[in-house]
Amino acid sequence: MNRTTMVAAAFFAFAGCKGTVDSDTGTPNETDDTDVVDTDTGVTFDPASDIRLEWGAGEGDSGAQMTATVDNTDSTGFYLGFAETAAAGEGWYGEDCAPDGCHEFTAMTGSLTYVDAPQDVDNDHTLFNNGTDGTGDVFTSDTHEDRLTYILQLVGGEHDGECYVWGDDPSYYVDEACTVVGQ
């Protein structure tokens, strides 16, 4: 089974949203009128503003963390992955959810601690940190938007299975039929 087939099996199709990527955080923002309204709570889930990634300080600081938060949904968790698509074949793809490498969060917020070696990456640790990708490539902005493409899939609740992509090259995840945020 090829990478595309395996990843497609892991993700499902979903509601549409569009917007831009915040240049300070790398988080999607500003959506059109296709936001998803939770019929139980009446709360609008807007992936552009309700998905937030905060990269902690500490270039080369293995104790620093990246925190992911998803608001305004009755989901119970999410999967998060990223690929260093700007570096093409030389980039780090070990956390891209294809099919393994997803970081699973069982709550609507969670953190990944930075590590310095690929063999140390697991569900709670990421090779990406606030300054480099862990392989020596330096990001040209603190937001990672110039190098990374992100994928996030909601788990549980009314939004179960919805997935969103944004960042450098959302077409990397084209076969997953996710909603592109920021295009």
Q: What would you note in describing this structure?
A:
- This protein has 183 residues and is mainly beta.
- It is 7% helix and 28% strand.
- The protein has helices spanning 3-10, 47-50, and strands at 20-21, 28-29, 36-37, 44-45, 51-55, 65-70, 77-83, 103-105, 109-114, 125-126, 149-155, 163-167, 179-180.
- A hairpin with a 6-residue loop joins strand 3 (36-37) and strand 4.
- It is globular, with a radius of gyration of 15 Å.
- The two termini are 30 Å apart.
What's the SSE blueprint?
Blueprint (H helix, E strand, L loop, with lengths): L2 H8 L9 E2 L6 E2 L6 E2 L6 E2 L1 H4 E5 L9 E6 L6 E7 L19 E3 L3 E6 L10 E2 L22 E7 L7 E5 L11 E2 L3
Parallel strand pairs: 9-10, 12-13
Antiparallel strand pairs: 1-2, 3-4, 5-6, 6-9, 7-8, 7-11, 11-12
List keywords for this structure.
28% strand; 183 residues; mainly beta; disordered N terminus; four-stranded mixed sheet; five-stranded mixed sheet; 7% helix
